[in-house]
Amino acid sequence: MIRVVLPAHLQTLARVRGEVELEVSGSVTQCSVLDALEARYPMLRGTIREHDTRQRRAFVRFFACEEDLSHESQDALLPEPVALGREPYLIVGAMAGG
Fold first, then answer.
1. Nearest-CA neighbor of 29 among 65, 88, 82, 92?
2. Are 2 and 30 in contact, with CB atoms under 8 Å apart?
């Protein structure tokens, strides 16, 4: 099981609290995790990735094992502790302002 932590506003939208556990078949990549997340919680489609390009939205960041994975390839394997469910995959709403 893959553990995913969503930002508070997406937890509210998906009607979940805390971590979400997902079953991911095959390789554990950012794309496969997000596909599984959107399949289980269809109301999240378009909130994390663009509908048409499936690219990460500008103010969303991905972290795992204290590393920013936001600019990594969607098809790159996630770190082993995430794939084994020992560490969570974090989806974070970035902040901007001035």
1. 82
2. no
| Nearest alpha carbon to residue 10 among 47, 64, 36, 59 | 47
Q: Are 44 and 12 in contact (CB under 8 A)?
A: no
Four-way CATH pick for 2-93: 3.10.129.10, 3.10.20.30, 3.30.470.20, 1.25.40.10: 3.10.20.30
Both tokens of 32, joined, read 């496969």
The residue assigned the tokens 């079953």 is: 23
**pLDDT tens digits along 32-74:** 999 999 999 999 999 999 989 989 998 899 999 999 999 999 9
CA distances to 20, 80, 89 from 17, in Å: 8, 25, 15
